[in-house]
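Continuing the series of single-chain predictions for the mutant panel. This is the parent chain; the variants come on the following pages.
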Amino acid sequence: MPGAKSVTSNQETIYKDLEEVVRKYARTTFLRPIADHTREAFAKAEEFVRTFYENATCSVKADTATECGVTHENAQKTDPGIKTGVTLKQKGNAPRAVILDSGCGTGESTIHIARRFPNIPVIGIDKSCDRLNKAGNPVQTAGDAIPPNAFWIRAELLDFWRLALDHVKADKWTIPYHAVYYPNPWPKQSEATRRFHMHPIFPTLLALSGVTELRTNWEIYAREFAEATKIVFDECARIAAKELYGSPPSLRSVEDDERGNRSVEGDHSNPRIICEYFDPTAPETAFERKYKEAGQTLWRVIVGRT
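Parent structure:
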């Protein structure tokens, strides 16, 4: 099927220098200057979140005429004729729950996630204006209204994540779920360090959310992501223990090869990592639909902290 080719790579197993690369970046801070356009985009997303919680009923309509398909122009508008709004009032100064859909592409996944979590604003982020112009089209919504908690913004992911983490650390936001669906796998071995889990941003990505879900159609990418997650938390635990006690702890690992699944567990401060193949009954992205129809095996990694 056109557009649904399997990943081809000259890399046959987990990248040989994975641990070295990941541990190096777990010990450093990514300090690249944040682009002004992403600061502006983040401010619009922040305003949408604020308005969503402060308004008793918040309704956001799709407007394909807005720049890049982004709905921020309508984020503060209320339509009393629509009864699907959500009544929410944040109490006191509690962090506001926000869900991220990173690399949302044409925005279809944002709609599915928004329907799954109707009481939480869902921010779909992508850097492509062309892709975002398609967000909220009738094919995606199946004729239904766009969920009022769905919002799309054009931004650079790495910068947006850093700004979002600042909000999490400041107790302004809490991110219960972070979707990272079908990122560019950079399949050539020479491009391996461009993958999210071998980039300096990876510790930030993991720190953002209580639950992070990666989806991919390349098994190696999924296994690398799961292994890199374990390494980051192991390295962070070692650094923290060394500062407190002068010696690092060790992580316990549990391997489960049944059905190709793997889980890794540490102490109570570390996440449970599930790496598995899955068969979505209702695909949530165009890529997912094409891969499924082409008979490809899909993989997901779920990182959950309890």
